[in-house]
Amino acid sequence: MYNFRMHQTLVIGFCLRLQRPLNFKLLPNYRFCSTGHVCQVKKPQNTKGSHIPVMLNEILTILNPKEGQVILDMTFGSGGHSREILRTAPQLKQLIVLDRDPLAHEIALDFADEFRHCKILPLLGTFEDLPHLLQQHQVPTNSIHSVLLDAGASSMQYSAANRGFSLSLNGNLDMRMNELREADQPTAADVVNTLDEKSLQELIKKYGEEKKAHDIAHAIVQFRAAFGKIVTTHQLVAIVASVFDSPMKLDKLQRPAHVATKTFQALRIFVNNELNQLSNGLLVAHSYLKEEGKSVDNKEQKSGGSEELLKRMSMRRGH
Ligand SMILES: C[S@@+](CC[C@H](N)C(=O)[O-])C[C@H]1O[C@@H](n2cnc3c(N)ncnc32)[C@H](O)[C@@H]1O
Fold this sequence. Notes:
Blueprint: H1 4-18, E1 30-32, E2 38-40, H2 56-63, E3 70-73, H3 80-88, E4 94-99, H4 102-114, E5 120-124, H5 130-136, E6 144-150, H6 155-158, H7 188-194, H8 197-208, H9 213-227, H10 233-241, E7 248-250, E8 256-258, H11 261-271, H12 274-288, E9 289-303, E10 306-316
Parallel strand pairs: 3-4, 3-6, 4-5, 6-9
Antiparallel strand pairs: 1-2, 7-8, 9-10
The structure holds S-adenosylmethionine (SAM).
Keywords: Methyltransferase, S-adenosyl-L-methionine, Transferase
GO biological process, one term: rRNA base methylation
Region (Disordered): 294-319
């Protein structure tokens, strides 16, 4: 029998919890960044593009780019790493840059224009498209000296509210890295509004390694029943927060993080088919590397059921 009192309590409970403020007071010089973590505010070091390249010195040391080499940056983003590669070795034979995001590709086209003296080849597509794209441009296999793969989403993607990657900015719950070319790909909103509770739980657990996946999936389904579709990032943030006592907790690296971070990560990985893309990407990269070529893969990887931040550096072909 339908229990009206319970329904009412649930609706009121949701309404109260949904009003939980999303801006938390932080220490001066710290801000709540779009990935869900608390970040120290730093003066931007690069003016071109908003991405400050991660592990720059380590990556450059391993890549050790040299005159006459061919280098492939599989995740161009806003070009932070590529720019530094060229600064280190302006006389490369060729710098091939790939991204699936049309906005990143536009930046890559400008980048190629800016560094006209270098042979830059900007490519729009996914890791899976890469063999076809390289063939189209007559790049032979076993011809690339180094490959850089800096997977995940870029700060450019996080900082656009309507792309739906950000926890702190309110916008459409989308999360597709290319909403133009892959128009039939489901958005994060499609996923949370159509999957049943069990599938949602599995997804959040598998791709987000979220211990409260069961409660979060239940809250999502209850919200749908009470209010209809989940449309915005802040609706989802509030639904996830409603199953926790506090909106912040420490992550594995002991950084304070918002409790919705893992759920957002799970949806982003699922929507963009990131794990399959990654394993294909590594295969493609290795088939194009020269015998003694290097690949630097900087990615979050699942292993043994627990998520680790793996910095797999300097992997020689065949190893
Ligand atoms: C972390 S950012 C890279 C930032 C870049 N290294 C920089 O310094 O600006 C990752 C980029 O990879 C792209 N990307 C992620 N998965 C991809 C895939 N499967 N195929 C092509 N590009 C991908 C994203 O669109 C994003 O722009």
